[in-house]
């Protein structure tokens, strides 16, 4: 395992991190704990969760796993988040999180899901920074961090404020081109940088042939595309850790093997591959869904993340006769007619981190049925 220093904190975290939002069966605590222990035994020491993952159950599983890690002398860092912004709300949440996580201090505490600069300004007005500074003085949290879905220069603007020690944001082959300014800010402010959605929310492993350009020159045609996608991120010296949401031991071992056999590219090789990615995505004029599932709050119970996943296949698979219908039918076992139930309330679009026009896509899907 490779370990990199998290910004200027002095903490060294594993370049491969464990994300706690994709457990296969969150109610099978023993299975989830075994997966986390296997990750720690493989050298992973950065574990990221949030109170919204499985309605706090992810944090509960993390706490039980951390208790076992302590018994086994396996080192770990805990990262979690808060949507709250007032002092009373944050204190109430932190106290509950510390109990669920079975720890005395949260190592990396993130202001969660900044999706617009207005949202950020409103949370500052509520006193969030002052509250987090107090919690840090009291020893309840160790480092103040930010988790953001802002894009392009907006993310850079956020990071240039002298308040954060690290940032969590989405980055993968599908958005290399839009993140350079964020990395400029990371370097200038010497921040820790943790990456979520390193596999594009499943886009990359679902389309291995399309993303074959991520493999190194001369690589075997059978080279694992997941390994290639992770390794090109590890080639970025600015990146501290890459979060993978593991759901099985097999997927964990696959990522650990990618790390074991990892040989870094040169910076020139990295830039050449990023240029290939930019050329590839210039073919698409609409944004791709990353699978974050923040849109999954439909009052009509429409499974929006599944529909947006299917729409990705329309964007990517130009030769297929009915890529949306095939994906819904054979992968998700869903009838496209459910898209007709949309009331156009807009909750999904407010939550979308890619600013996708979800309502229009649902209309298009329903008309094709």
In short:
The protein is of the alpha/beta class and 369 residues long.
Q: Give the strand order, joined by hyphens, for the main sheet.
A: 3-4-5-6-7-8-9-10
- Overall body shape: globular
Q: What's the number of helices?
A: 15
Q: Whole-Å distance between the termini?
A: 49 Å
What percentage of the residues does DSSP assign to strands (E)? 5-15%
Helical content class: 40-55%
Number of strands: 10
Ranges with pLDDT <50 over ≥5 residues?
none
What's the overall average pLDDT, rounded? 87
Class from helix and strand fractions:
alpha/beta
Q: N-to-C SSE series?
A: EEEHEHEHEHHEHEHEHHEHHHHHH
Give the C-alpha Rg. Answer: 20 Å
Biggest pleated sheet: 8 strands, parallel, barrel
């Amino acid at each position: 395992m490779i370990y990199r220093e998290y910004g200027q904190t002095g903490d060294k975290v594993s370049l491969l991190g464990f994300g706690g939002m994709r457990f296969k069966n969150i109610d099978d605590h023993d299975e989830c704990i075994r997966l986390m222990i296997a990750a720690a035994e493989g050298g992973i020491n950065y574990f990221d969760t949030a109170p919204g993952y499985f309605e706090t159950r992810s944090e509960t599983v993390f706490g039980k796993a951390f208790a076992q890690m302590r018994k086994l002398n396996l080192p770990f860092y805990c990262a979690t988040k808060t949507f709250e912004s007032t002092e009373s709300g944050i204190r109430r949440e932190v106290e509950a999180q510390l109990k669920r996580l079975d720890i005395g201090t949260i190592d990396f505490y993130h202001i969660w899901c900044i999706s617009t600069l207005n949202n950020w300004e409103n949370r500052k007005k509520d006193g969030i920074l002052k509250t987090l500074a107090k919690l840090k003085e009291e020893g309840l949290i160790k480092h103040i961090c930010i988790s953001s879905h802002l894009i392009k220069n907006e993310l850079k603007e956020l990071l240039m404020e002298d308040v954060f020690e690290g940032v969590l944001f989405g980055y993968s082959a599908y958005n290399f081109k839009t993140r350079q300014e964020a990395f400029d800010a990371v370097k200038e402010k010497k921040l820790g940088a943790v990456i979520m959605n390193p596999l594009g929310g499943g886009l990359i492993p679902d389309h291995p042939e399309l993303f074959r350009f991520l493999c190194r020159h001369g690589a075997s045609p059978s080279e694992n595309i997941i390994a290639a996608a992770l390794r090109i991120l590890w080639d970025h010296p600015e990146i501290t850790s890459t979060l993978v949401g593991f759901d099985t031991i097999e997927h964990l071992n696959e990522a650990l093997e990618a790390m074991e056999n990892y040989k870094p590219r040169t910076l020139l090789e990295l830039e050449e591959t990023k240029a290939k990615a930019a050329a590839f995505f210039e073919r698409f004029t609409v944004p791709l869904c990353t699978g974050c599932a923040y849109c999954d709050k439909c009052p009509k119970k429409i499974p929006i993340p599944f529909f947006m996943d299917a729409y990705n296949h329309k964007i990517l698979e130009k030769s297929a006769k009915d890529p949306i219908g095939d994906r819904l039918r054979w992968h998700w076992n869903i009838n496209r007619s459910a898209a007709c139930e949309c009331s156009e309330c807009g909750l999904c679009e407010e939550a979308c981190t890619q600013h996708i026009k979800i309502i229009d896509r649902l209309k298009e899907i329903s008309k094709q049925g």
